[in-house]
Every structure is written in C-alpha cells, then in structure tokens.
Amino acid sequence: MWIIRRDLLLAMRRRSDVLTILFFFIIVVSLFPLSVGPEMNMLRAMAPGVVWVAALLASMLSLGRMFSNDYVDGTLEQMLVSPQSLSLLVLGKALAHWLVTGLPLVMMAPVLGIQYDLPLDALAVLTVTLLLGTPVLSLIGAIGAALTLGLRGGGVLVSLLVLPLYIPVLIFGAGAVEANMAGVAFDAHLSLIGAFLMVALVFAPWAAASSLRVSME
Amino acid sequence: MLQGINLECIRGDRRLFSKVNFTLESGGLMQVQGANGSGKTSLLRMLCGLSNPAAGEILWNGTAIRTRDNDYFAMLTYIGHLSGTKDDLTVIENLQISSALAGFEVDVGEALDALERIGMAGREQLPVKVLSQGQRRRVALARLLVCKTTLWILDEPLVALDVTAVKLIQGFLEQHLQQGGMVIMTTHQEIDIQAKSIMQLQLV
Questions:
Q1: What is the ipTM of this complex?
Q2: Which of A66, A105, B28, B140 has the fewest beta carbons closer than 10 A?
C-alpha cells in the first residue's frame, strides 16, 4: 500500500500533471453546450455520452505516464526484482492513478452536468456510474500502458489498444443515465459496470504485470 | 550459493555469449569482465530474473530462480545503470521507498545513519533532481547499507564516483564479503578488495 502513498506523493509534487487532466475534461465537456447551442432537449439527450467520452479521453491522456516515469529512472526494474508480488504493485499503481485522475473527474461531473440541464437524479446516476466505471478505465489502461512501454509512438498505440476495450463500460455507463432519464430501471446497467470492475480488479493487474515482464526483457 | 549453468544470451540474431558457467559461494566476489557490448549487463539482468537466458539455468541453493519458488528475490539487491531514484522525492524519501520496495521497512534514524555513512549527511532533505550524478549514485548505493540482503548484483557501481567514494564503497563491499555475503559486479576500474575468493568471469 505504500506504493499508493508514493505515487500520490509524486503526484502532489507535480500537481500540474493532475490539473491538466482535470482541465482537459472540464474544457471538452464544456465545449459541447457552447457549440451546439441552448437547445435543452438535445443537450439533455447527449449529456451522458459526452461526459463519458470526455472521461475516457481524459483518463487515457494520463496512461502514458503510469509506468514510463518509473521505466526511465529505473524504478520499474527495481519493482521487477522486488520480492513483492508485481501484480499487487501494479494494482497499487492503478489505484493511485485512479485517485489522481479518475476521482477528480467523478467529483467534477455533477457540476459539469448542470450545463446540460440534467435533472438532479440523472446527475446522481451519472456520478455513480463514473465512480464505478473510472477505476475500470485505470485498470484496463494499465494493461495498455504496460504493453506499449518503451515503444516509440506508444501514446497513439495505447489509444488504439485500450479504447475498444473501454466500449462496454462506455455503453453501460451512458446507458444507465439515459435509462434513468427515460424513466426505466437502470440497476442492471450499474450491476454490469460493477461486474466489469470486479473482473478488471482480478485480471487486469495480473495481465499488466505479465506485460511488464515482457516489455522489460 | 548461486550457480550459472551453460548460460547463453542472444540479442537479435547475435549470440553475445554461450556456455557461461560459474558457482558463487558465500563470501565470494565475482567480477564480470569484457569489452563494451560483450553482454555484461545482459548477464547481470539475467541473474536478476529481468530476462530469461536463451539456454541454461540459474540456480539459487539448488532451485531455479525463474520458478520464483525460493527466497532469491528477497536476498537480492540489484543496482543497475539507472539509479532507480525519483527526481521529485527527497534523498531520504528515496532511500526509504526503495528499501520498502525491496521488502525492508527502514525508519528515519536508520536511513539518516546510512546516508551519513555514504557521505550524504546534510543533504537528506534535498530533492534528488538537484544532485550531481555521483551524489545520485551514492543515494542508490545507500540501499546496500539498509537492506540486509545476501547477494549484491552491481552494474558499474563505481561510475561517476570520486576517489573517496570509491574507497568507501570498496570498504562496504569488503565488509559485506567478510560477513558471508556475495557480490557480482562489473567495473572497468581497478578494484582493490580483499576477499576469500575472487573470481573473474571473462565474456568474449
């Protein structure tokens, strides 16, 4: 667990990295109402999708840094020769990544949702789906970041690898909010995102750890 | 006891070395020598389990290290070309975190003591990014003093160090060997270490 503390400490020393991601998210989400115009019904209809897509992109922006700093200064080598389980270290790093990049988005989302004239309960559902879904993004992203470690043009490659894997989370995340606004039950959507989270928690650290061993060879 | 049996390393389509055999006993120092590009670092990375040999086996007390089925990684400290220090963290934070990674919780007192012994007294609270290359190396090497491991694998540990630091490190190595530790290192510098068994492994 000290690895989470270390990554948070590093993030605090480089606050600008964290803030750029958050501002990227805020700006992308705010661009749509500005460009589409004050058509309330249309804005309400597109809100869940826009917020979710912006969250995907924002979380992906920071993936490159998840392992590359540790790779460049040799800390990653030390993690590989450490007697501690590499999967657990990766899990710790993914959780730290989420705390630094995912959680601020979740907290910002209800405020941004107001721009789209979302009703209060839809805002709540949106926040809950993001709360369940953004950790999945960090976990799946860890696999992509590990696979593309040390490659030239890894940033573009990681989006090609990871974005398709984000699609299920996106569909059910945005779907839950739409269902809520349409007055239909949305708990099935939430359960499915929860299931994705469980599966990712179990498999992603292991997959990312194996990818790291391959990338470092 | 660490044994290498018929180790072979292939990079791309070039065979760097093959049929490398050695046995390192407690208290032994093995110095890996060879020209640039002869595979010294590759051999050391292999011994750390960072890459797998194309052929052959590495045994720690009789079991293969790649099975990860023994205490090998708890007994090993590896210091490579890269210092493994974080620029944004202070000297003492770096030491504490890198030892925690190796499985040794170090309190502030111990860390300060180790930094003093390695000549970094008074700079404990500086971020590593303001340090010189030699000072960064000292911070990385300070880990040897706080982690109670048996086998030290050091890739060019003396690079960038000044004369006094080189003497200091040689003293630490000697002491470690006297206490029954093992050292595998590469260096292009002349070293002056007294130990009960010193081996040269020549890579061609």
A1: 0.88
A2: B28
